[in-house]
């Protein structure tokens, strides 16, 4: 059996999860790997057959996505070429971790594509949503990497085919202790903003892992550290609490390690708004932004000893087996009615799909 495993490389979480999934897939067939996107610090210890630019988002420094940088970094003609050149017909099974090149190649060629990701769970109708409906965010999430079948990971099992987070082996092997510092990972904020707000809490030692600094330094009660996987895990394992964005992997690992957790969802990032809603339902405190006006909420969290209890068993091998058992034998679906032969027509197809979703 020949398997294509395609991974979104924009965030660290997708690649971290892939480190657990790839060996399981290799036990079941011949695996080729595709990675698209940038801005991830995690490296795979496996050969990558296809490297693509894909369709990624660029973090800003004020708590959200830098739309201008995102627009400049994404070249539709190149994305179209990557989609057309990917030989999906050579594979028996195609699995996409929210990866657009493989997903759209399957969509255009009439091939089955399995969405195996956190986003697959967020898309489920029973998964938590923010109070305010974000139709544009929902539409982007549905069309970014369209799949035929979905298997998702979430903070809780809200429906069938939604499973516990994939907790990395290196995290499961940690022996957490309650230290005296707080671990911080807020990649959408500048170091200056983080230092200005966190230094207000003078009795707290903050260890901040930064995407913007290549050297470590101290300023008041804040230590800035370049992102390093081993250092981050060591810090989190010995932390009293974790302050981070409302992504998926870091909050899930913090909960698994029984750490006090507070999250700040990124602005303009619908998936993180959904995650924040799910975490808030579980009892995790959420603040909208890192600003002085939320200092009282941060103070209350620091003074609280509440840790949200979770049970995250290792279900990854079971999920892979179930996915492969349910995958169609020939892996074929119906091709779209209108052939798409150029980047211009591809753009029109995406716009039409998104408008049809918005009309609903």
Protein model, in words:
38% of the residues lie in helices and 17% in strands. The chain is an alpha/beta fold and 360 residues long. It has 2 domains: 2-167 and 315-359, Rossmann fold; 170-303, Glycogen Phosphorylase B (Rossmann fold), CATH 3.40.50.2000. The strands form 2 sheets. It has a 7-stranded parallel β-sheet, sandwiched between helices. The longest helix is centred in the last third of the chain and has 17 residues, at 343-359.
Second rung of CATH, namely the architecture of the largest domain: 3-Layer(aba) Sandwich
What gross morphology would you assign? globular
Main-sheet strand order equals 3-2-1-4-5-6-7
- Written as H for each helix and E for each strand, in order along the chain, the element string is EHEEHHEHEHHEEHEHEEEHEHEHHHH
Query: Which spans of ≥5 residues are poorly predicted at pLDDT below 50?
Result: 63-68
Number of domain units:
2
- By secondary-structure content and strand pairing, the structural class works out as alpha/beta
Give the tally of β-strands.
13
The span between the termini is 39 Å
Name of the CATH first level of the largest domain: Alpha Beta
CATH topology of the largest domain: Rossmann fold
Tally of contiguous helical segments: 14
Radius of gyration (CA) equals 20 Å
- Level of helix content? 25-40%
Which strand-content bin applies to the residues? 15-25%
Query: What integer is the average pLDDT?
Result: 89
User: Could you give a short account of the major beta sheet?
Assistant: 7 strands, parallel
């Amino acid at each position: 059996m020949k398997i294509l495993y395609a991974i979104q490389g924009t965030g660290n979480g997708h690649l971290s999860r892939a480190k657990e999934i790839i060996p399981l897939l290799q036990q079941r067939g011949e695996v080729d790997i595709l990675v698209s996107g940038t801005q991830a610090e995690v490296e795979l210890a496996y050969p990558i057959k296809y490297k693509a630019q894909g369709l990624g988002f660029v973090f800003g420094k004020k708590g959200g996505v830098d739309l201008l940088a995102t627009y400049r970094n994404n070249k539709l003609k190149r994305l179209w070429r990557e989609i057309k050149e990917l030989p999906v017909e050579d594979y028996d099974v195609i699995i996409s971790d929210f990866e657009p090149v493989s997903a759209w190649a399957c969509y255009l060629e009439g091939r089955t594509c399995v969405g195996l990701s956190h986003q697959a769970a967020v898309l489920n109708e029973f998964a938590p949503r923010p109070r305010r409906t974000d139709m544009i965010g929902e539409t982007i999430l549905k069309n970014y990497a369209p799949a035929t079948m979905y298997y998702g990971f979430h903070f809780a099992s809200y429906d069938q085919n939604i499973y516990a987070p994939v907790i990395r082996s290196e995290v499961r092997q940690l022996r957490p202790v309650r230290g005296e510092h707080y671990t911080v990972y807020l990649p959408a904020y500048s170091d200056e903003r983080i230092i200005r707000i966190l230094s207000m809490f003078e009795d707290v030692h903050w260890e901040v892992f930064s995407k913007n600094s290549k050297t470590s330094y101290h300023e008041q009660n804040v230590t800035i550290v370049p992102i390093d996987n081993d250092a981050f895990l060591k810090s989190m394992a010995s932390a009293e609490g974790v302050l981070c964005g409302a992504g998926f992997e870091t909050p899930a690992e913090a909960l698994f390690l029984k750490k006090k957790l507070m999250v700040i969802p990124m602005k303009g990032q619908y998936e993180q708004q959904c995650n924040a809603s799910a975490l808030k339902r579980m009892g995790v405190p959420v603040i909208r932004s890192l600003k002085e006006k939320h200092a009282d909420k941060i103070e209350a969290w620091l003074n609280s000893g509440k840790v949200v209890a979770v049970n995250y068993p290792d279900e990854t091998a079971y999920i892979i087996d179930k996915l492969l058992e349910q995958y169609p034998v020939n892996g074929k679906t119906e091709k779209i009615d209108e052939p798409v032969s150029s980047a211009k027509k591809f753009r029109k197809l995406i716009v039409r799909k998104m408008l049809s979703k918005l009309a609903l």
